[in-house]
Amino acid sequence: NFQAGLPMFCVSIGVVSLTGGGSDGGEDGPVVVAGVIYNPILNEMVCAVRNRGCYLNGERLKPRSNSGSDSDDSLELNQALINVGFPVSSESTLRASSSAVAALATKVRGLRMIASASQVMSWVAQGKFSAYVSWDLNAWDVAAGMVIVEESGGFVSNFDGRRADISSRDLVVTTSSGGSGLSDEILCILKENDCLQY
Predict the structure, then answer these.
(1) For 72-136, where are the E strands, in sequence order?
(2) 12-64 pLDDT per residue, tens
(3) Which of 21, 86, 105, 118 is 20 to 30 A away from residue 172, measured at CA?
(4) pTM, entire model
(5) Pairing outcome for strands 171-174 and 131-134
(6) Whole-angstrom Cα distance, residue 34 to residue 32?
């Protein structure tokens, strides 16, 4: 986007502990412990440190939905605004994402296809998007966003529904915490429509 002159870009920095980073001692292996995403066009800086919360321009973010309530644990799929990634890495990922658009379009409030994984994850953390789905992502695209979303109360999962880690390439990112919410509904639709394999 930046190279093309499109004003939809950001700087994203994620800090990864290679020996685990959870202060609760429950995480082994590489863990994102801090992240910052800065959009210079909008002057939005979102940052988080694991177990210390998430902040937008210095103000702590509280979990909220884009439907106006303080918590989106009960957000219905038909009220969700979802961003679908459009990976151009291969024909098979393009087919999967195109199928996802067709499968989700009539079941949600709206779909968007903004091609900036870090920026979209920042907006999920802020509650501007209800969810983000994408295929074949790279760690440098999502590391900061992972800790930012989780510290804002959101959930980052693999396509198998389990919590994602830094090696995850396919993600469903939602503002609703927990495995039984919006993430599971999205994954069910994607599975029923053969959008998870590529």
Answers:
(1) 81-84, 110-112, 131-134
(2) 999 999 987 655 556 778 999 999 999 999 999 999 999 999 999 999 998 65
(3) 21
(4) 0.90
(5) antiparallel
(6) 6
